[in-house]
Amino acid sequence: MLSESIDGLCIRSDGTYVDVTFGGGGHSRAILEQLGPEGRLFSFDQDEDAKAESGKLKDERFSFIGENFRHMKAFLRLHGVRQVDGVLADLGVSSHQFDTAERGFSTRLDGELDMRMDRQAPVSARDLVNSVEEGELARLFKLYGELPNARQMARAIVEYRSRMSEQGGINTTGELKDAVKKHLPRGMENKYLAMLFQALRIEVNGELEALKEMLCQSAEVLVPGGRLVVISYHSLEDRLVKNFMRSGNFEGEVEKDFYGNPLSPMRQLSKCSASEAEVSDNGRARSARLRVAERVSIKSQETREKK
Ligand SMILES: C[S@@+](CC[C@H](N)C(=O)[O-])C[C@H]1O[C@@H](n2cnc3c(N)ncnc32)[C@H](O)[C@@H]1O
């Protein structure tokens, strides 16, 4: 979806763009290729490894900001930027994070149960599974993992951690898998584990709250006609993006003025999924959804409001 997302930004060669999820820098490099000498790119990522990777990108038009994108507006201001022409977000976990066992994101690899994108953050997945009470764990698994057997999973984890208390509870992804293995329906083991890991990851990184804040700030910093391009990887994220692009809020209720004209700051222009070829290349792409929206012209809204 690289080319579709870059097309969605509709890049002006002298424009100012923000990639809020630098990761390995694939999208940032593609944006820079389309920018002229006057163009500028600001890329965010809260992960130290992404910061190290960004150091390889030597380009005067590019600045890396090693912060959570929930602070996008404040850090852009610090760089003297109040308005931008496009914002791109390729949400979730990078291939590098998934493939590094000790980061704890992968259900396939055995490593520390960490899952923090920002390794300075105070709470890891290990802290969560060893300290949160059973009812709260079940709530998280249901809410963020949409796990049908959330309560069973939570109970299994609490029992396992008390059996393992002398070793300090559940410390690795392997131990977590061991704790819940009896509750993984046959043939759906990987799916259930992915849901469980997703729930923990969302809670550890405060992913949905950060996404909401970033979307609202995008509408504030985009120039009229500026583009917001978001790739999401699960339905909880996609629902927030979809509602925001339609209505400017997360409930998806479009407010209207006295004359029945919609008052949303954004207008969704397109949505698409990954092609068959992309899915066979990279299984993660199966769940990817790309949405593109445009900042509605403030003038046209003001005119409507005055009428
Ligand atoms: C899917 S990867 C992006 C891959 C990137 N587009 C590329 O071409 O290589 C997502 C990245 O976003 C970062 N990330 C996720 N949530 C973030 C947040 N709230 N603030 C800053 N970075 C975040 C992750 O650390 C990860 O590196």
How would the blueprint of this fold be written?
Blueprint: H1 2-9, E1 16-19, H2 26-34, E2 40-44, H3 48-54, E3 62-65, H4 72-78, E4 84-90, H5 95-99, H6 125-131, H7 134-145, H8 150-163, H9 173-180, H10 189-205, H11 207-221, E5 222-232, H12 235-247, E6 266-273, H13 276-281, E7 289-295, H14 298-306
Helix pairs in contact: 1-2, 7-8, 7-10, 11-12
Bound molecules: S-adenosylmethionine (SAM).
S-adenosylmethionine binds at residues 21, 23-27, 44-47, 50, 68-70, 90, 92, 94, 117, 210.
Describe what this molecule looks like in 3D.
The chain is α/β, with parallel strands linked by helices. Helix content is 45%, strand content 15%. It contains 14 helices and seven strands. A seven-stranded mixed beta sheet has the order 3-2-1-4-5-7-6, sandwiched between helices. The protein is globular. The mean pLDDT is 94. Residues 21, 23-27, 44-47, 50, 68-70, 90, 92, 94, 117, 210 line the site of S-adenosylmethionine.
TL;DR?
The chain is of the alpha/beta class and about 300 residues long.
Bound molecules: S-adenosylmethionine
Order of helices and strands: HEHEHEHEHHHHHHHEHEHEH
**Mind telling me the C-alpha Rg?**
21 Å
- Calculate the mean pLDDT score and round it: 94
Annotation field: number of helices: 14
> Which sequence of strands runs across the widest sheet?
3-2-1-4-5-7-6
Helical content stands at 40-55%
Taken as a percent bin, the fraction of beta residues is: 5-15%
- Beta strand count: 7
Are there runs of 5+ residues with pLDDT below 50, and where?
A: none
The end-to-end span amounts to: 42 Å
| Helix vs. strand class | alpha/beta
What would you call the shape? globular
Taking the sheet with the most strands, its summary is: 7 strands, mixed
